[in-house]
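Researcher: Here's a chain I'd like modeled. Treat it as a single chain, no partners, no ligands.
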Amino acid sequence: MSPRGEELARVLERPAHHPKALDPVTLAFTLLLSVGGSIIGLQLVTTLGLTPNTALIGVLLAIAASRIPIPVLRVFRSIHVQNLAQSSISAATYCAANSLLVPAGIPLLLGRPDLLPAVLGGATAGMLIDLMMLYWFFDSRLFPGSAAWPQGIAAAESIIAGDQGGWGAKLLVAGGAAGILGSLAGIPAAALGITFMGNIPALFMFGAGLLARAYTPVLLHADLNRQFMPHGMMIGAGLVALTQTMLLVFRRRKKTEPGPLAAVPFTRSEATVRKALAGGFLLRIAAAILLAFAGGLGRDMSPARLIAWVLFAAVSCVAAEFIVGFSAMHAGWFPAFATALIFLLVGLVLGFPPAAAALLVGFVVSGGPAFADGGFDLKAGWYLRGWGRNPQFDLEGRRQQIISALIGALTGLVLVAWFHGHYFNRGLFPPIDRVYVAAIRSGTDPSLPRRLLLWAIPGAILQFAGGVERQLGILFATGLLLVNAAAGWVVLVGLGVRIVVRRIYGKAAEVPLSVFGAGCIAGNALADFGSSAVAGWRGR
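Model: Modeled as a single isolated chain. Structure tokens:
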């Protein structure tokens, strides 16, 4: 175990039993947070096209509640209850906005309001399936608890600072100040924080992808997006990543290999992951069948084509889950919208009619945000529970976190079902919906299959070279899908600083660097949330 893990296992609170998510006071508080988080997500995704990470807002509100001198509120002094609070509000925000409202807007913009119930039902199924898949996959060899999950570390260190103070709190505050100042200056300080935590080769490729997307039009007079290079690269890398995952999961081993922290075994065995993967795929097949019949696809397609659509939808959801999950785990960014666009383009190449394409993209886009955001929250809990040193306590806490996340997700569903018309009737749609609908209406460029195949080859080679541990192809393609030159420079400079500091001070420097980095992420997130919230409410 690393020095930070030893320290946390020694000093952090670990009661005999983990606090329950359904305890009356905790449940009432998480419901209130979930309603607030859902409203924040709906407002900002329709006015600005983005969804902020509200986990730190939940942390701050829980800490504030614990300071109120009312006996019933003492429960919020527990770092584990604070973790439940941040799990619920962040799940509500992402699920309401990204997993539900984004799919719901697609059929209305397409002129097919009759498809709305089917799309919303399919999105709900995709969201819940991916949350459950995360529960079974987290802290396995596929998605280790010891991996970066940078936003989760930021939330955990914020909770620790509020509870313990000490040198960690000072470093966190310093990083938070840097994050706020960076945000005010237009510098993505969160990218700097991420470079102090993640896998160096993976982050290097992420930064390289960001810079390639930004400067190729200037240097080579070529628009990579118009050439479908990011999409093709992600298709190739995603197919190889899916193959690598299957080989990793289904390869028989004499015993479960320990995690990267040799003293801490994984809490999910490969046998458990195999069962979960098979069960998740069957659930997606069942959901896709119900979605197809609810959307009336049997009227537009032959039985053979309908079966092909069901299989393609299920496979696309699995592939998108891994692409988004690996990106979130290594880089802290997850290109859920862009990944869904990729599978939409492939579906159009395969000749699926507009209604089928709309149902497909709504189904695919719904799961990734729930999976990635839930991964950050479970990482925070794993961190707070002592880095997995007590597997039984960690699993108990993980169950309670998933319950809190489900409370947030279902609260988001209720608010979307009730209030989507409040936004759509005024023409307030998530901007990405207009991109999806434009792609569906325009059909397929005859040269698209060739371009996707051309760029899929280097994406596949890069992913194969990096292996499942580094995800080089996935991270490079993620960078290509984003437009953020400043983040690319910050990532490369941050990696250089990290390498130099490690050479001077050795591995001991990793702990203070990661805590400072967590502060950068937290400060940047709070500043961005504040500015986007003000802009969003002004845009009502």
